[in-house]
Amino acid sequence: MNVETPEPAGPLLEVADLSMHFPVREGVLRRARRFNRAVDGVSFAIASGETLGLVGESGCGKSTLGRCVARLHAPTDGSINFQGEEITRLRGGRLRPLRRHIQMVFQDPMESLNARHNVGDILREPLVVQRVGDRASRELRVRELLDIVGLPARSAQRYPFEFSGGQRQRIGIARAIALKPRLVICDEPVSALDVSIQSQILNLLNDLQREFRLSYLFIAHDLAVVKHTSDRIAVMYLGKIVETGDGESIYRAPRHPYTKSLISAIPVPDPHQRARREVLWGDVPSPIDPPSGCAFHPRCPMATARCRVETPALRAVRSAPQRVACHLVD
Ligand code: SF4
Question: pTM, whole model, 2 decimals?
Answer without folding.
Answer: 0.91
